[in-house]
Structure formats: structure tokens, C-alpha cells
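User: quick one - fold this with J2J bound?
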Amino acid sequence: MLDGCVPWPPELAERYREQGLWTGERLGDLLRRHGDRVALVDGPHRWTYAELDARADRLAAGLADLGIRPGDRVLVQLPNSAALVYVSVALFRLGAPPVYALPAHRSAEITHLAEATGAVAYIAPDRIGPFDCRALSLAGPHWTVIDGDPGPHLSLADITAAPRPLPPPDPGGVAFFLLSGGTTGLPKLIPRTHDDYALQLRSAAASMGVDEHSVYLAALPAAHNAALGCPGVLGTLRAGGKVVLARTPSPDEVFPLLTEEGVTITTLMPPLLSAWTEVAPLLGVDLTGLVVEVGGAVLQPEAARRAQDAGIRLSHWFGMAEGVHWHTRLDDPPELAATTQGRPLIPTDDYRIIDENGDEVPPGSPGEFLVSGPCTLRGYYDSPTYNESAFTPDGYLRTGDLVRLDPHGNLVVTGRVKDVINRGGEKIGPAELEGHIETHPDIRTAAVIGLPDSSLGEKICAAIVPEPGSTPTLAALRTYLTARGVATYKLPDHLRIVDTLALTATGKIDKRTLRATLTTESTR
Ligand code: J2J
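Assistant: Sure. C-alpha cells for the protein plus J2J:
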């Protein structure tokens, strides 16, 4: 394991190997099989397995020649594109873990990730929409590698060398880092090992019936766990299927692909599921038989039923980039998929549901969900203090989610205890956003909370105490945060100006009361 990562205890690791859960598979071996079959469709370009495999080999050799060494972290911010796949596989082969930033991230997030991981390189496209990735000035990384017009930087296309055998990385070691959507404060990094992610890919493909005949549409960003590996892009490639990459999940872009490419399965967050269901008949598109994995935020049963009525075969997921996965199976009764998140992806996962005192709740009662298993991390990267509170002393991850089990053992998410806003599946850490807002010269204190929203589940509200004499506006605050390089999906939807922010007995801002007051106000 890399410095800063917490390994599984040796006796557990041994058990997972004995049980055949960890098999010693390396993710760099993805693409080695299925030669002439089409692996990837990226706009007008089609890649066979053999072509992608060869590109990944040449790139791995080229990156090694550049000076990237096993164990080095590489910050990767690529939209859904062939480059995301061959860069990932090249880095897996090299044993230099990619750190997956999202395309929506901007300078504030990228700078944080570069610093937090000590990344030696940043690999990005020339532009993501209006955002010019080449213009970032990052202090740490030695190399900026650009897919597209490189400007003053290195061009990804030029990084190539004759393929040569590279020392194979340890399958128990870190393959890549994902960003946590569920932690408080600045985003934490989740180390995922070859062994643990291969298990996730294998199990998800088996459970969802993904094989060489499957066609997976990546409509969500593939750098996010849901579209990357459940089974998603990597799991479909591992199974020999075809992956179709969409830059955006908007019906205009993806609906033509559904029929042209014969898509069989995709992943969506709840607001998109509703949008697709609503728009399909208007555009004359038939969604019958399409498998949709939906998760990431609360799915209203009515929205699920409408999707099922439109012919969609729904699998409802509770997932975490941390490696916790439960889902309904395709042969479950449809009503189960509309109302529960099903059973564990890894049936041997250990879990507990506990009350505020740490005691297990009676069967069927809600409580906090704790998980330990062969895919679930044992510690966030380089965060020893935070890890003390995020895990139990015996290594269970405290998910921060409140759940109960139905009488048949199906999971039902009922709420959460962590201070995170879930805006239609996009996770926003209030503490991180408050930090940015409080740098504004006209703002004394800020408290960021989620307010209920009928389409997104929650929207972002910033309650602020201004400096005397100033009255900041929402538009001005959003402009200010954008100029600081904060990602657009984190910008407040609402602004409330208050005289004071009430505190709890322990001196923290009383967000529960604030939420109750502002929710009543906003629905009046
Ligand atoms: C309510 N909240 C949910 C659900 C996740 C598949 C699907 C989703 C994710 C994901 C993922 C929820 N109902 N059905 O990684 O592989 C909230 C919980 C959880 C947090 C994790 C996957 N499904 N959530 O959303 O790491 O609060 O992963 O802790 O982004 O999303 O977020 P993230």
C-alpha cells in the first residue's frame, strides 16, 4: 500500500483471498482480450480492443520515459472520451494511480486535489466548455499533459514510446483514487485497489447480466464510481462488451445513440431518470427493455413507477465511491425496485445499523449504516485524524446514511446524519463551501444547508450574516465564487440574509433549526 493509505488487516486480506473474492487480478490487464471487437464508441470514432490496448501500452511506455514512476499520483480530469480509458489503463499498467477529478471541477477543486495528493502530473483536455484547463497554474505537478491543443504544455498525442514490459504492480496496491461525495470538510480521497475494484466490476457485471453482448452507455461522467465501475465503463470492457461514451446525459445527445448503437444498459441519477421518462414519448423514443441503474440520491417511488411504465427495467442502487453497494436485481418484483435499494452487491459484506449510542437497532428500525468488506476502504488517503471518526475502532466505515432493512433484508435509505447536501446526486460539502463564502469581504459568517426541492431533492442555500452596511446578492455571490474557481454545481441556489446564526450548546451553528426555519419560509 502507498504511504497514507490504510491496508485491510492481514487476517481479513487472507480471508478475502481464500474466499476467492480477491483474485490477484490487475486492472491494467483490461483490454488485453477481445482483439477485433469494438470496445468503445466516442463520437465518430470507434476503437477496437486491440487498438485501445496498443494505445495504452505505448502511452504507459511514454509516461515512464517522461519520468512517471510506480506509486506517483497523476491527476486526471477527462470528460467521457477514449482518452479517459486509455490514460487510465496506461496508468494502471504503470502502477501510477490516477486521481479522478470530475469534468465539472474548476481551479479551486483541482488545486486542492493536486496539493492533497502531491500529484506529479495533470492530464486534461484543452478545454471543458468555457474552462481552459491549460490556463491553470498548479504549483505541484511537474507535467501538464493536454488532450487536444496543448498550448505551452505537453500533448497527450505525442507521449508515446515502443511498448515494453513494465514491472507489474501489486494487485493489493492502489489502482486509483476516487473522490468521496460523502465526507465533511474538503473532499477526501478514496484509495481503490486492483483486487477490490476487480471484485466490484466482476460482481456488478454478473449481477446485471453484462457480458460481451452488452452495450453500456456512459451518460454520467465516467470518472464517477457509478458510471466507472458498477459495472459501468470498466466492468463492461472487462466483460468484452461495447461502451458508448456520451459527453452529456441530455436526451438530445443520448437518445439517438440508444438506437444507433443498440444500448442495453446505462446509469442515471434520479432527476435524469425522470427527465428521460418524460421526454422520450415527446421525441418518439421507445425505452422498452433498456436497463437503467438508478441511484445516488433519493428516488421517489412514483418517479420509479413512471420509468417502469415506460418500459425501463430498473435496478435501484445505493452506492458509495467508498465501495459500499446494494441494489435491486433485475428479476426482483418491480415494486421492490421502486421502494428499496435491494441487497448487497457483495453478499459477504459485514454491516451494522446502529443508534446514537452505537448500539444495534432492533430489526426494521432505522439507524446509521456501518459497513466493512472486501471493497470498502479502511481509511481515507492521508487523513489519520479524520479516519478516527469516520471508522469504528474495528474498521467499519460510518457511512453517515440512515437506513433500515425491510423484513426480507432489502435496504431502505431513510435519511442521513452527515453534513452533506445531495443536489440530485451531486454531493456538496457545506464546510468547503462556507470556507469559500467567508472569504468574501462583505460576509461575516455563512452557513450552507440543503433545502427541499421537488425535482432535485435538495437545493443549496447559503444563510449569511453580512458585514454591517452591506447587502450581498445571490447573483453577486455566485459570480464571486465562480471567480474563485468553485465548480458550478456547488454555487448556492438561494441566499438568505440573517442577523445572527443561532448556535448549539457545543458552539456550532445550529443547522437543524436553521433548516427548519428556512424550509418553512421557503414553502410559505
Ligand atoms: C439515497 N441516497 C443515496 C440512494 C447513494 C452507484 C450509485 C450511486 C453512487 C454514489 C455510487 C443513494 N438513495 N439510492 O458510487 O456506485 C447517497 C448516500 C451515499 C452517497 C454516496 C454508485 N445512493 N446515496 O452516489 O460516493 O448519501 O456515490 O453515502 O457519489 O450518495 O455518494 P457517491
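One thing worth noting: Residues 49-66 form the longest helix (18 residues).
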